Amino acid sequence: FLTWDGENSCRVLWVTGTPGAGKTMFLRAVASRLSTEASEGPDSKKLAYFFCDGNKFLHGGATSVIKNIICQVLKAQPSLLSHLEKQVRLTDREHFDNQNDFYAISTVFYSMLEDKNFATTYFIVDAIEELRLDNLLGLITATSRAPGCSDRIKWLVSLDHGKINARQTLIDAENHLHLKLNSHLQGLREVTNQYVASKVGEIARKTHYRGKLQVKITERLQEMSPQNFLWVDMACEVIKSSNTPWNAIHILGGLGKDVQSLYRQLKDGIKKFEQEDPGYCNDILSTAAIAFRPLRIEELVGIVNLPPEVDPEVIITKMCSPFLEVRDGSVYFRHHAIRNFLM
């Protein structure tokens, strides 16, 4: 990362890792730092970013991503607006909200980058494999090699490398760098341990752990953790949903040792619920997985046709808590990888 940030010849930094490895957290931390630097003055480096929301299908595909980025560039550099206005006149389009508008909107992007007044800008795109955007991959690699603009842009892109062919990303190209987040990365265990302590602390404050239970759970989780934030989140949800917090150490000992095995274990555990509850859980999970956006609780209840005596919030926040959460009355997946697992 320091090499990418400090050397002009390094145009793209690909950050790879399995789901839950910390890619989004890393990119958000970088965006926060760069955002602070960008606000220091008119001559400072600029920033534009796009973080994938795995709970929603992206309407408009790559076109929507580039539109979003262009809007941020224009907000920071309003003098570049003429490039967009020119394309609006040529195409007689105002919104560029169709997937087929990618060529037109990318032409605006290229034109802006080639403008002599374009300021050095960092572009950050998270979870590009979830976007399934070949056009966007092509744009990133093309701009990183374009002689007229490549010296004024840098790309920071995260992806699950198992889902995208290396040739598509040119991850090993001369002016591209690769940072792989895994359990062997120096310093990751310390960060994971801090994350565990923070998560257990939140649970302890809500459930009022007695004695040294918080310390014991923290130490056990830190010992078991495969240095994966998603695994930690799901494990914490399991112990939080237990009605016997004093058995947390025993419960943790029976959990799968990696994300995939824990997924399967928790999904299979739904079968052990009583009466019709397994069906209610599976209906809610499958409906949430195929929805084009996060559904409100009342919408979800209507679609799966829950009996009036069944409390949907109990199903979602207790029985399906490792997979789902409720925010502002809508149901979200805790991580986009959970949706992929269910699909």
* Number of helices, where a helix is a run of at least 4 consecutive DSSP H or I residues: 17
Largest beta sheet: what is the strand line-up?
2-3-4-1-5
Helix-residue proportion: 40-55%
- State the secondary-structure class: alpha/beta
- The sequence of SSEs as H and E is HEHEHHHEHHEHEHHHHHHHHEEH
Question: Count the strands?
Answer: 7
What's the end-to-end separation, in Å? Answer: 34 Å
Q: What is the CA-based Rg, rounded?
A: 23 Å
How many strands, which pairing sense, and closed or not: the largest β-sheet? Answer: 5 strands, parallel
Shape: globular
Strand content: 5-15%
Low-confidence stretches: none
| Average residue pLDDT | 83
How is this fold's topology laid out?
Blueprint: H1 2-6, E1 12-16, H2 23-38, E2 46-50, H3 62-76, H4 81-91, H5 102-114, E3 121-125, H6 128-131, H7 134-145, E4 153-159, H8 166-169, E5 176-180, H9 188-207, H10 213-224, H11 229-240, H12 248-253, H13 259-269, H14 277-290, H15 297-304, H16 312-319, E6 324-327, E7 330-333, H17 336-342
Parallel strand pairs: 1-4, 1-5, 2-3, 3-4
Antiparallel strand pairs: 6-7
